[in-house]
Design goal:
This protein has 68 residues and is mostly helical. It has 2 helices and no strands. InterPro entries: DUF7981.
Length: 68
Amino acid sequence: MSPRGRSALAWGAVSFLLIGVLAQGAALLGLGIEASVGAVAAVAVVAGVAVAAMTYVIEPRIERKGRA
């Protein structure tokens, strides 16, 4: 796998895990989020795929501009 693909998958995994951590933190703090495990997992998967896709597309452009 190319470094670009690995980077995109890594950012997608970070996004996936972040959604889970935020949902668990909100539940532990009693912030009134009554989401099921399935709903949180679905949102986490969608967020992970979206971030991975955006990273894969945008990363070369950022590198060309010298910001990475």
